[in-house]
Amino acid sequence: MLIVLNIIFCIAFIGFAYLNFNDVDWYLWVPIYLSAAACCGFAAAGTVYPTIYLLLIAFYLIYAVLLFFQKDGVRDWISKYNKPSLVESMQAEKPYIEKTREFFGLLIIAGALLINFLAV
Questions:
Q1: Max Cα distance, the chain (Å)
Q2: Is the distance from CB of 113 to CB of 57 less than 8 angstroms?
Q3: Is residue 25 within 8 Å of 99, Cβ to Cβ?
Q4: Could you read off the pLDDT tens digit of each residue along the chain, which spans 120 residues?
Q5: Are 85 and 13 in contact, with CB atoms under 8 Å apart?
Q6: Any idea what DSSP says for residue 73?
Q7: pTM for the full model?
Q8: CA dihedral 39, 42, 44, 49 (to 10 degrees)
Q9: What is the C-alpha separation between 55 and 38, in angstroms, rounded?
Q10: Most buried by CB count within 10 Å: which residue of 27, 75, 89, 93?
C-alpha cells in the first residue's frame, strides 16, 4: 500500500513541479517539488533516506511558518480576508492566494515525507 501511495505522490509532485515552471519563483518551487518526488520515488523503489526526510521536512515546515506569518500570508487570509476561496481561478490575482496555496503545498509535501519517515 505504501508503494502505491509513494508512486501517486511521486507522479503528483512531478506534475506540480512542471506546473511551477511558469511561476515567477520557479527556481524555488521546482526543486522543492522535485526533491519530494525523488524521495517518494526512491521510497517506492525500496530505498529510504530518513535523514534527508527529516532535513526536508524541517525546511518545508520552517518555510510554511514563514508563509503563515508574512504580510498577506495565511494568517491574513484567515483573519483579514475571511478565508475566500483559493480555487476559483488558477491565476493568483490576490497576494494571499499564492502564499496560502504554497503553504498548503508545503504541508502536503511534509506530510508525504513524514509518512515515509515513520514507516522506516
A1: 45
A2: yes
A3: no
A4: 899 999 999 999 999 999 999 888 899 999 999 999 999 999 999 999 999 999 999 999 999 999 999 888 888 777 777 666 655 655 556 777 788 889 999 999 999 999 999 997
A5: no
A6: S
A7: 0.87
A8: -70
A9: 14
A10: 75
